[in-house]
Amino acid sequence: MKSGEDMAHQSAPQRPLVGVVTDLKEIEPHRFFATGEKYLRALTDAADVVPVLLPLMADRVHLQEWLQRLDGVFLTGAYSNVHPRHFAQTDEIPDTQHDEARDALSLDLIRATVDAGKPLLGVCRGMQEMNVAFGGSLHQNLHLTGRYQEHREDKSQPLAVQYGPAHDVSLVPGGVLARVTGVENITVNSVHTQGVDRLASGLQVEARAEDGLVEAFSVEGARRFAVGVQWHPEWQVLEHPQNKALFTAFGDACREVAAANQR
């Protein structure tokens, strides 16, 4: 006979499962699929979801099989960049890190997630992947365009400085982020070399930096939360109310999916 505690545990709603796209890492002599701890902590602590690492095995998995089990998808930042061939450009920086195993999975997964009506949140490279997946392009070197302020971090500084406040972004009135955060402006960190050049059709600007760079967008017509942000909201997320609100909104959307699946 089951105890009251067992029955209460079984009846309690399960936390949503969120797929987290990993990066290919080579730690000689082996290769690993890995992701940053800070993303996983933000997902558990601020979004209140259960992160599930997704291996970069596009040739061995069926996206629909994954999406049937997942309640949302999260795209992390990374030291690598989307390969420029995906937006019809050549590689401008020969020593730039690329992760074509991640490209092969994430670009298809992004479109499939939105088509399936599952929530999607992309951060930094994840946002850039979203733009490319829907047909947009990227500046490979923002600092060489002559149009933007410095968006790169000073890698000689400690992480607390690299991820410290860098500039303000203005939120589009009435947009998804403005509604979620309840503010008009956010001070954000800035840890990126690339950024949006041509915004893909079907993406709606949610925030811009002081220099005009697109810092956030949403997917028009998406059935559920589908947002990309250029900054790193996961960094010390519980100390930043607007960034925490972003993760909470994503988690709430994932909970809607999980609740519907548990009926």
Can you walk me through this structure?
By secondary structure, this protein is an alpha/beta fold. The chain is built from eight helices and 13 strands. The chain has helices spanning 4-11, 37-45, 63-69, 100-115, 125-133, 159-162, 176-181, 241-262, and strands spanning 17-21, 23-27, 30-34, 50-54, 72-75, 120-123, 138-139, 167-171, 185-188, 195-196, 203-209, 214-219, 226-229. A nine-stranded mixed sheet has the order 4-1-5-6-13-12-11-8-9, with helices on both faces. It has a two-stranded antiparallel ribbon with strand order 2-3. The protein has a two-stranded antiparallel sheet with strand order 7-10. Strand 12 and strand 13 (226-229) form a beta hairpin. Helix 4 packs across helix 5 (125-133). The longest helix is centred in the last third of the chain and has 22 residues, at 241-262. The chain is globular, with a radius of gyration of 18 Å. The two termini are 25 Å apart. The model has no long low-confidence stretch (mean pLDDT 94).
Brief descriptors of the model:
single chain; 263 residues; alpha/beta; 9-stranded mixed sheet; two-stranded antiparallel ribbon; 8 helices; 31% helix
